[in-house]
Specification:
The protein is mainly α. Helix content is about 60%, strand content about 0%.
């Protein structure tokens, strides 16, 4: 993983960097999120847009940005973890194939090197 990829999966301002080897996601975290139906926008006339309205708008915009950023970081973490696991899986499959071939070779050597004993001569 490149440092740039890991930076995309690390929460800004966090002292802990994302480690795809150690990070585990619970089943709950990996469940798809339900589609939430947006409520219809309500038009607010200009004469009702007082300071309280604009304060709420700013607060809501910041909350929406934090939510989008958190979702983006989590999606990046899951993608990087999946990539890491796919590479690890490929390595393990290769190792298993190698060991299976070695096992078969040793079995063949064992079968050919052991002298046949005639069990009928007893």
């Amino acid at each position: 993983m490149s440092p740039a990829d890991l930076a995309l999966a690390t929460v800004p301002g966090s002292t802990h960097n994302f480690d795809p080897r150690r990070r585990r996601f619970s089943e709950e975290e990996l469940k798809p999120q339900p589609m939430v139906k947006k409520s219809k926008k309500q038009f607010v006339p200009d004469d009702m847009k007082d300071e309280k309205y604009w304060a709420r708008r700013r607060k809501n915009n910041l909350a929406a940005k934090r939510s989008r950023d958190a979702r983006r970081v989590k999606e990046n973490q899951i993608a990087i973890r999946a990539s890491y696991l796919e590479k690890e899986n490929a390595k393990l499959r290769e190792q298993l194939d190698k060991l299976t071939r070695e096992n078969m070779l040793l079995r063949d050597k064992l079968v050919t090197s052991v002298p046949k004993v005639d069990v009928t001569k007893s």
